[in-house]
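Researcher: Structure for this, please.
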Amino acid sequence: MTILRAATRLAAAGGMLATLGQAGALAADVDLRVLGWYGNQPQQQDIEAPFWKGLEERTDGTFSAQFRTIDELGLTGFEALRTLQTGAFDVVSIQVSHVSGDDPLFMGADLPGLSYTFDELGELLEAYSPVLDARLQERYGAKLMAVWAYPPQILFCKGDITSLKDLAGQKVRVSSAFSAAAVEEFGGASITLAGPEVYQALLQGVADCSATGSVYGNVNGWHEVTDTLYPVPLGGSGVAIHTIRLDSWNKLTPEQQEVLTAEMKELGDALWQMGVDDNQDGINCNIGAEPCKNGIVGKMSLLEVTDEGRAEMKAALENVILPTWVEQCERVVDDCRAQWNETVGKILDIQL
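Model: Predicted structure, token format:
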């Protein structure tokens, strides 16, 4: 997409929201223009959309919101940071992996192999969030309001595997350059396929393994054409953030800022808990364990992540993933290495 086409679409999106605001004649003190993530996700359907719809009632008319999803307006996740900068929206939801091409710093706590549980991820994000917030404020004129995560991308493989070393000679579908580097470190061949193409690729032998979230794989039937589920975070943790433009934030009174901060914390906490619950439910469904509340019962075998498995992934993290990331990050942020070492690196006892 050319920059001109992207700008035209963003202008059209902003005009649509302005028209909607005039038509709605909302009586709240502050009417927020909100851009959410893709509308086909349960996070947006079940939590984010109802949250913004009920904002005016919960805040006694302090805030209202015009909520739209990014796909509803014909935009893509890769445009999220550029959309934020246009000023067409006050609040923008961003999945950090989608904007890493524009700004690699955002991926500093979401690289493959950094964390294996939501508790571990939460510790990393608590340390790294000030780095994200500073970057948002200095470069994009925005403030970090909430941090949460989708289920991590884990491995669905055909046949029996016992470790990451078994990826040698295998064709593994991945969705990022970092995951590709890890696969190749283990002797596998990384391939790129759109999500809807993966089922047939696995069925026909075009792919031997594929990384995705436990829920996405289950909903799309991957458990029917694979045998082993390995919850090693080969594709990262699906971190997402909610941001507000500083221009919008600074217009609020201190009391309004306090109310919105509390509301956004509630939103972030709810989205975080959904990630925790959905991840485990997806795993349960794929392997045929109880409870399986929202998916399709499968018969996959679960390969538990052992200390040996963590050591294998850590070797790939240190040998190829982190060097690739820091090289990219330092092209746009001079002190990227130092900031990472003082936050995520200190927790993991890894220094770049």
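Researcher: Any notable elements?
Model: The chain is about 50% helix and 15% strand. The radius of gyration is 21 Å.
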